[in-house]
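FAQ: What does the model actually see?

It sees only this:
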Amino acid sequence: MKKIILASNSPRRRELLLALGLEFEIIPDNTPEIMEKGLSPCETVKSLAKFKGENIRKTLSCDADAVIISADTVVAINNMILGKPKDYDDAEKMLKMLSGNMHCVYTGVYVVENISGKSANFYEKTEVFFKNLDINEIKDYINTGEPMDKAGAYGIQNFGSLFVEKLQGDYFNVVGLPVCELGKVLNKDFGIKFF
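And it is asked to produce this:
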């Protein structure tokens, strides 16, 4: 069986792949991300996921029989991308924007077979609806430290779940990896079976 490489340091992506019973190696791409100007959120995540995957592919020998999976997730409100907060004030500003509103979470995924170069590049979009947050909730949440390494300044799988009234789409996409779509692509296009 081909070696699977996850090109990500994300503990959440790692946990999701482990839950599928896949054996894989983690080789994160630590190249600084550069967002191209003028791209929509869905084009941005596809582009960044491909950038990461191809960076890891360049580090492998050309005869390494491996499939690389890379991903990138952003939060967008009114098509404006919210990355990871720079500091406390930035996190507070983002959470105030999300309060009482619907935003979209986009995850781009890139899967590439090292030897053949065969690839798939896709994205998933999930709509997330936040309840109205009062300023004390926002401050208390930021003080947990959870928002600081998360796109949009929240994590849905922990304390941030307290803010989500509902969502439309793939929950796992919001966590950081659209598992259902990825499973279809790995099975159909790359012959990776799960059962």
